[in-house]
Amino acid sequence: MAFKLLASFVTLAAILHGFSAAAAPSDTRVLCPDGRNFASNAACCALFPLRDDLQKNLFDGGRCNEEAHESLRLTFHDAIAISPALEAQGIFGGGGADGSIAIFSHIETSFHPNIGLDEVVEKQRPFLERHNVGVADL
């Protein structure tokens, strides 16, 4: 499970930097409409403006501030697949990195390990609306 999580973070980092972790030098990449970013899949081009907006307006110009720390914590907690609703039914696990903490923030952020994540969820909502992406994509 730890390896899957590490692989997810590496893949996400590669996408956000414009390179696919699986891309070989001979693979075809597309130039995004902004004219400065490349992606292995044109659908990923929508994520570059989101990345830039997050870096500038949430992460204080790309610095490792409290919002960056809490965003990483939110991503981790969403990805480790713990669902109190399923746990109550005797089932351990959940949907993985599906954005459920943000979707069901009124429930999920009251679960003990997620306490305090409600603040970063609310700080991220305007970015979701501004860039028209789903919480799982964020």
Automatic annotation (TrEMBL):
Q: Keyword annotations for this protein?
A: Calcium, Disulfide bond, Lignin degradation, Metal-binding, Oxidoreductase, Peroxidase, Signal
Listed GO biological process terms: lignin catabolic process; response to oxidative stress
Q: What are the positions of the active site?
A: H77 (proton acceptor)
Q: Where does Ca(2+) bind?
A: D78, G96, D98, S100
Q: Which residues form the signal peptide?
A: 1-22
Q: How is the cofactor bound?
A: Binds 2 calcium ions per subunit.
> For site (Transition state stabilizer), what residue positions does UniProt give?
R73
**Disulfide bond sites:** C32-C45
Record's protein name: Class II peroxidase
Source species: Pycnoporus cinnabarinus (Cinnabar-red polypore)
